[in-house]
């Protein structure tokens, strides 16, 4: 049995990774570390808490990380501050967690000669024009546009430097926008779903032309396991499911799935520096490692996600008014 340390595993993607691993890869003994900031929710792990070792802690805590890395065989590093709007209001938590935290993990990985898989985002590449036929691939130059994406770009570069300079065993994956269960309701899709449930109209940034490349969180996490098992040391793999949709299209799909008029939303001020389009070319991952997504029908995956939020109001309703009040202050 291999021992796996998962950072940030009380967050959205990390908690789904733990659920996925316990179900599909039972040979792993899992330890979780999470700081339990506002985006980390212990209820995300409620149903499996007796099957894991949970540690509440900060990945920038050198002594704690050194101990945990020494005790495990592989580190899967999800922990990150990840909300663009918040990074514009206060960049420091993004610098501390995404850069200093990653540095702390790398030093422990180096010291104890362990294996790292580092989770990143397609936002490090900046954005594409709506009519650009190209997509992001592993050779695309970095061009981050927000404090969040800049901090993630920095963390990617640190991993690459530690591989080259110190011989650290690591892989990197950059993924497109995730959706699915346990996603914080400040994020686009769950915010609109929960707005409709409580009788509020969805709020669309600007004209809604901005395009995102959506992937179900389970597809993301299945790809991570394929990279862990088959990926080459020092390599980067882009994870995507060919799910390009404009924000306007996503809003209309959500409203239609929930029995509302597809135009029943309000336009709000666009986010400063709002990236226009993301698109992932996952050819390398598919051809070299043999991965393919399960959720190829976005509407079907979205419908299942809507059902999850309908069935789990206990999970999101206690913070809904607080989240919307914060957006209202920003005119969004």
List the helices and strands and how they pair.
Blueprint: E1 2-7, H1 12-24, E2 28-34, E3 53-56, H2 62-71, E4 74-77, H3 84-89, H4 92-112, E5 115-121, H5 147-166, E6 169-175, E7 177-179, H6 188-197, E8 203-205, E9 211-216, H7 217-230, E10 236-239, E11 244-246, H8 247-257, E12 266-268, H9 283-289, H10 298-311, H11 313-329
Parallel strand pairs: 1-2, 1-4, 2-3, 4-5, 5-6, 6-10, 7-9, 8-12
Antiparallel strand pairs: 9-11
Helix and strand composition category = alpha/beta
Global shape: globular
CATH superfamily of the domain at 2-179 and 216-239: NAD(P)-binding Rossmann-like Domain
Low-pLDDT stretches are none
Which CATH architecture of the domain at 2-179 and 216-239 is right? 3-Layer(aba) Sandwich
CATH C-level class of the domain at 2-179 and 216-239 is: Alpha Beta
Gap from first CA to last CA: 48 Å
State the strand order across the main sheet: 3-2-1-4-5-6-10
Give the overall average pLDDT.
95
Question: What portion of residues belong to β-strands?
Answer: 15-25%
Query: From N to C, what is the helix and strand string?
Result: EHEEHEHHEHEEHEEHEEHEHHH
Number of strands: 12
């Amino acid at each position: 049995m291999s021992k796996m340390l998962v950072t940030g595993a009380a967050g959205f993607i990390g908690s789904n990774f733990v659920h996925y691993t316990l179900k599909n890869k039972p040979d792993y003994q899992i330890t979780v570390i999470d700081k339990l900031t506002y985006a980390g929710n212990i209820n995300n792990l409620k149903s499996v808490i007796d099957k894991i070792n949970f540690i509440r802690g900060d990945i920038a805590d050198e002594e704690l990380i050194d101990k945990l890395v020494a005790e495990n065989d592989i580190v899967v590093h999800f922990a990150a501050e990840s909300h663009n709007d918040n990074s514009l209001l206060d960049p420091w938590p993004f610098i501390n967690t995404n850069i200093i935290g990653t540095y702390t993990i790398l030093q422990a990985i180096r010291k104890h000669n362990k294996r790292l898989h580092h989770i990143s985002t397609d936002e490090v590449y900046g954005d594409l024009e709506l009519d650009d036929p190209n997509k992001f691939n592993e050779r695309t130059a970095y061009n981050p546009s927000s404090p969040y994406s800049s901090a993630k770009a920095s963390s990617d570069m640190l991993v690459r430097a530690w591989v080259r300079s110190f011989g650290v065993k690591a892989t990197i994956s950059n993924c497109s926008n995730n959706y699915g269960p346990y996603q914080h309701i400040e994020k686009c899709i769950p915010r609109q779903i929960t707005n409709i449930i409580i009788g509020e109209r969805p709020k669309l940034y600007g004209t809604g032309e901005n395009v995102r490349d959506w992937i179900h969180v389970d597809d993301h996490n299945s790809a991570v396991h394929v990279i862990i098992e088959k990926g080459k040391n020092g390599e980067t793999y882009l994870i995507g499911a060919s799910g390009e949709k404009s924000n306007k299209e996503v809003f209309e799909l959500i409203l239609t799935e929930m029995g509302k008029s597809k135009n029943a939303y309000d336009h709000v001020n666009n986010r400063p520096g709002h990236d226009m389009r993301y698109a992932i070319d996952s050819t390398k991952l598919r051809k070299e490692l043999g991965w393919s997504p399960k959720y190829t029908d976005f509407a079907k995956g979205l419908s299942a996600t809507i059902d999850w939020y309908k069935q789990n109001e206990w999970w999101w309703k206690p913070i809904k008014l607080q989240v919307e009040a914060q957006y209202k202050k920003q005119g969004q």
